[in-house]
TrEMBL record:
Signal peptide: none annotated. It holds the Pfam family DHDPS. This is 5-dehydro-4-deoxyglucarate dehydratase. One of its GO terms (molecular function) is 4-hydroxy-tetrahydrodipicolinate synthase activity. The active site is at residues 141, 165. Pyruvate binds at residue 54. Gene3D superfamilies: Aldolase class I (3.20.20.70).
Length: 310
């Protein structure tokens, strides 16, 4: 897929997918994953991001990551775009990129740097080296201050950089970065439905979703309303989804670390929707009984809710 088509493929909802693990031996359940993907594709999803944080990237081996990307490429239709996540040093990222390309991926999402120490110039060179070493389209994932405005502005000029996933809840910084960057990248809101409206107004052509794994029709209705500038309707849909996002950002029972519920909510939601979520891997834990009851209540309300009447 050429760069122009790739950029346009990000002008939608990016489904950051969860990986179901077998409940008996903990291995990746590829049959269940394929069924999950077929369900959200049928609901209208066309942009899939496997091996991201929702996909428990850091709990997977490289072999599992490649196999998960391959399942995405095989289980989704010809109209789908598959963007595999990768992290680590340049060689590690490029080795994964090559295997992802062979597995059928269209693009590579470079995860937010996990290095303890970074330098702004060195970080820009890191991304340049990745762009130089792969034929896949490159997506830069910003999740903190390390990936600075200067770095994004510079990298936006690369033809290989097709999108930026901006996952920081700073609309002012996002707006200024979009204004200052002259490149043709597609800007996407990387913090899901909660900020979809203000980021769209400031230049985000799409947004990522986790809850879309199990309520795809609702989040796609939100995108449609924003795309048509039906902002009052969009606000009502966003407010209907917000309890799920609130639950995801909680630390979970017995923890003080934010967002511990993030992935467990998605996996439990898949189970509620008739798909297969499966267990999480360490260092995550399952939802508490109380949080699971709250999730069930929110899901039951959304299951009978009609976005077209929002």
């Amino acid at each position: 897929m050429d760069a122009t088509r790739l950029r346009s493929s990000f002008e939608t909802v990016a489904f950051t997918t969860a990986v179901p693990f077998d409940r008996s031996d903990g291995a990746v359940d590829h049959d269940a994953l394929a069924d999950n993907l077929a369900g959200i594709y049928e609901a209208g999803a066309r942009l899939f991001v496997p091996c991201g944080n929702t996909g428990e990237y850091y709990a997977l081996t490289d072999e599992e990551r490649v196999a998960v990307v391959e399942t995405h490429a095989e289980a989704t239709g010809d109209e789908a775009t598959v963007v595999g996540g990768a992290a680590g040093n340049v060689r590690e990222v490029l080795d994964l990129a090559a295997e992802y390309e062979a597995a059928g991926a269209d693009a590579l999402m470079v995860m937010h740097p996990d290095h303890t120490y970074v330098h702004e110039r060195g970080l820009a060179e890191y991304y340049h080296a990745i762009c130089d070493g792969t034929d896949l389209g490159v997506v830069i994932y910003k999740r903190g201050p390390e990936v600075s405005r200067n770095v994004l502005i510079e990298l936006s000029e690369r033809d290989e950089v097709v999108a930026v996933k901006f996952a920081v809840d700073d609309v002012k910084e996002f707006a200024q970065t979009v204004q200052d960057a002259d490149g043709a990248v597609t800007w996407i809101n990387g913090i899901a439905e909660r900020y979809a409206i203000p980021f769209a107004i400031e230049g985000a052509a799409g947004y990522t979703t986790g809850v879309g794994n199990f309520v795809p029709r609702v989040t796609l209705a939100l995108f449609e309303a924003i795309d048509k500038e039906q902002y009052e309707r969009a606000r009502r849909i966003q407010q209907a989804l917000r309890p799920l996002e609130d639950l995801r950002e909680e630390p979970g029972a017995g923890s003080s670390i934010p967002n511990g519920n993030n992935v467990p909510v998605i996996k439990a939601g898949l189970d509620l929707a008739g798909y297969e979520g499966g267990p999480v891997r360490r260092p995550l834990v399952e939802l508490s009984d109380a949080d699971r009851e709250r999730l069930e209540s929110h899901y039951e309300r959304l299951e009978t809710w009609t976005p077209s009447r929002a």
